[in-house]
Predict the structure.
Amino acid sequence: MNQLKEAAIETDVVIVGAGPAGLFSVFELGLLDIKAHVIDILPRAGGQCSELYPEKPIYDIPGLPVCTGQELTDNLLKQIEPFHPTFHFNEMVETLVSLGTAEKPEFRLSTDAGKIFHAKVVFIAAGGGSFQPKKPPIPKIESYEGKSVFYAVRRMEDFRDKNVVIVGGGDSALDWTLNLQPVAKSITLVHRRDQFRAAPHSVSAMQELVAAGKIDFRLGQITAVEGEDGELASAVLKGNDGVEEKLACERLMPFFGLTMKLGPVADWGLQLNENLIPVDTEKFETSHPGIFAVGDINSYPGKLKLILSGFHEVALAAQKAHRYVYPEKKLLFQYTTSSTNLQKKLGVS
């Protein structure tokens, strides 16, 4: 326990999820001088807004007649800049252990990247759960995961001087094709067709590298992998013409999209109801003191799964969180429009 504590990241609050509710949590907590670290399994902030509908118009955000999911995310990130949150992307919270009491909560959280956090409060803002990668139907691929098969890049050094095969035609596949090209020994991009769902400038950059002979592009799909002790040696490519061949492959990255699952939250000892977390409507606290659930992950009578509902929930949850973080301080409610103290925190006075 002592060794874990020495290595732990100490913070007031850990926010699980970087979607709109998670980002606005940083703002409401920041106004109360509460520091936060934000953890998300995705490679960037925004949650469903950025991943599922970045260009889709949203019409029911108060004061904004219309904005896209990405515009909302960008504005929320700008709004929380004064509070300097620390983000941990491409990470999933695997365990949550309570170390404190109902009156004085304390939690230890660990991620799949090996980080340990100690916090007084936890905000679960995980939307419908965590985004999990869709895995390809390749026999025995599980035995290679984490060693030579990856669904996200946490350390580029893991790919240095390796023969890398990337499968997919979306932004993630193209982005990592471009980013890993200077690092890897070789890059082979595999896609079922020569049309892509990625940003046009990424497609153009990839095609230029192919034309220059710096990466290889193959039409088809990976049907099998070979290797020992979790380390890949080759991958079998079945071309669109039906012909199979072996590709040198020490690192395989399949990008087949994401699916929503409740994930490790189900094992945190919280009361659940149909994969949602019941909360009260006074402070949006869960069955465990010090753990709050805001946004689409929670459940209560009359719940509406709207972004604006999540913002309301965050504001009330932050008020109760203040009592746990600063038990000796009396909380004085203030308005940003009239409080010079809050305006100073926001850098506008």
